Fold:
Amino acid sequence: MNPVLRELVALGAGLVTRETARQVVPRWALQQACRSGDLVRVLPEVFVAAHLVAARPGTPALSRLDPALGQRAALAWAEGCGALSHLSALSAWGLRQQAVGELVHLSAPAGSGLRTRPGVVVHRRQGLILEPPQVVVRRGLTVTRVEQALVDSWPTLPPTERRAPVIRAVNDRLTTPERLAIALGNVPKLIGRAALRALLTRLADGCRSPLEIWGHEHVFTGPGMPAFRRQVPIRVGRRTMYLDMFAECEQVNIDLDGAATHGDPRQREVDLRRDALLATIGILVVRFAHRRLVHEADAVRRETLAILATRRAGAIA
Structure:
């Protein structure tokens, strides 16, 4: 390969466009690099170092790249006329890992000349403006805003995988249930819209995990249950803690231990110290494991009601 072109490819972390190459090397240098197998054309006018293209015959060249490189290649091809969207945007936002071989999704204004090609899907949208707030730069990539990406991706994901990116986005403070509800309101015919709206309601109530949502829907609502406050900040000395489900009148906090924390002795020690600290100000912490909450919902409900009744009776006495 021409040494100047080789350096240019290295500067582009394995990627070069025809427009960039023609500014520093003769046209034949790019053609020769492709003929010799040093470069592979993955999209019109976009080339990638051959060693970065996996050998999977019958698969579009773009789909044989590492997902991050594939996204960069698609944006280079779009030349500022499109932004990563849908599942590709979720990857750019760090909310979902894109698998090798997945299509790259771009959104472009309705009047743009971009069209779907092997390895890349182009979604043409009326009213899309490739500027903030509709489109932002994330990790050096042009991407649709997180609310739009989450709503767009909802019907694309398998039902069992839809909730996780939304919950993570809220927990990581990339967005809020309220902003997501506004974005959802702009897509009245979204497939699975009712389920997403229900999830946003749970998140707005303060639920912050699938287990908390399960508990809210199947255990901790109904006759006898107080109106639990969720994610309540409590300060003890110099430390601020957030209570999962706080019954203020009874001074009881319900903590739900996820499956991932079960059996972790370090996490158990942290939890015990936290519970002891809350006990110094009169707050009783009651913990339910993932297994019990899911498989013994009725028993957990009865125990919770009994504990709350005992605390109320103690307060009166």
